[in-house]
Design a protein that fits this description.
single chain, about 270 residues, alpha/beta, seven-stranded mixed sheet, two-stranded antiparallel ribbon, 11 helices, 9 strands, globular, binds S-adenosylmethionine
Length: about 270
């Protein structure tokens, strides 16, 4: 490993994967078995994983999985890799569910891998959820994740654009969304991990605000009186999203800081 082209932490993650897969050994074997040599098939796979990473492929796609909040999710090229900052949305929803202290109906718009909906379902058995996406690939991965986590009874998956995915008139206690919010011209779209993720999960192909505008402008129709909406957005979009929520006549509108100190989530409530 010492002459590997990757940073040490990434090489350790990939080698742990090889040890688990080929030898059923835990991560601690990196130290306890550091004199061990790899078999030919294990060595070939190690070299292939390293070259994929050297070409820039995200580690989560190489391993096919990613930890998020309290669960582990299958991820692949058809779906956004869940980010740690999105756990803030999960925490806000879980706080609300705890306060309501009853059966709670939650809508997750643009579910991707199912990250938000499935971590809420896993932590709050009293919640039932609808998770939507317009990508059939994403929904297939989300359903597969729900099956692996044994949460298919609690989460229903619907295909379609934002609220149009709903098959019957419905109102929810909580609506959560992490929609695409990167502006089409943003150079980050052609850098790092983002180059490998689905473009339609990252950008609205416009200013970055158009999906947030649609979701917030129509939210009163889909929230119960007093119900909560919380959305994730870019670090420089907080003022604009606060404005959209006020324009939609929501009350108790608040910006929430992520762990890095940026306002990355905004929430509001429908009037009683
Ligand atoms: C930023 S990703 C978020 C994925 C997941 N919720 C997460 O936090 O990891 C945005 C998701 O919205 C979906 N999406 C994009 N446009 C949509 C639309 N018009 N209606 C529903 N979902 C849409 C994308 O397919 C993608 O899965």
């Amino acid at each position: 490993m010492s002459n590997c082209e990757l940073p040490a932490n990434e090489a350790r993650i990939l080698l742990t994967h090889i040890l688990e897969k080929h030898y059923q050994l835990p991560r601690s074997a990196l130290l306890s078995r550091d004199d061990m040599s790899l078999s030919e098939p294990a060595f070939q796979e190690w070299e292939s994983l390293v070259s994929r990473r050297v070409l820039g492929e995200p580690i989560a796609y190489i391993l096919g999985k990613k930890g998020f909040h309290n669960i582990e999710l299958e991820v692949g090229p058809g779906v956004l890799i869940p980010r740690p900052e999105t756990e803030l949305l999960v925490e806000i929803a879980l706080d609300e569910i705890t306060k309501l202290n009853k059966h709670t109906r939650v809508l997750d718009l643009g579910t991707g891998s199912g990250a938000i909906a499935l971590s809420i379902a896993s932590a709050a058995p009293q919640a039932s959820l609808i998770a939507t996406d317009q990508s059939t690939k994403a929904l297939a991965i989300a359903k597969q994740n729900a099956q692996c986590l044994n949460l298919l009874d609690q989460v229903q998956f619907l295909l379609g654009s934002w609220y149009a995915a709903l098959t019957e008139p419905s109102q929810f206690d909580v609506i959560i969304s992490n929609p695409p919010y990167i502006a089409h011209q943003d150079p980050h779209l052609t850098q790092g991990d983002l180059r490998f993720e689905p473009v339609s999960a990252l950008t609205d192909y416009g200013s970055g605000l158009s999906c947030l505008e649609i979701i917030i402008a129509q939210v009163n129709q889909y929230l119960k009186p007093g119900g909560l909406i919380a959305v994730e957005h870019g670090f420089d979009q907080s003022e604009a999203v606060l404005g959209l929520m006020k324009l939609a006549d929501l009350i108790d509108v608040q910006a929430h800081l992520d762990l890095a100190g940026y306002y990355r989530v905004t929430s509001g409530r429908k009037r009683l």
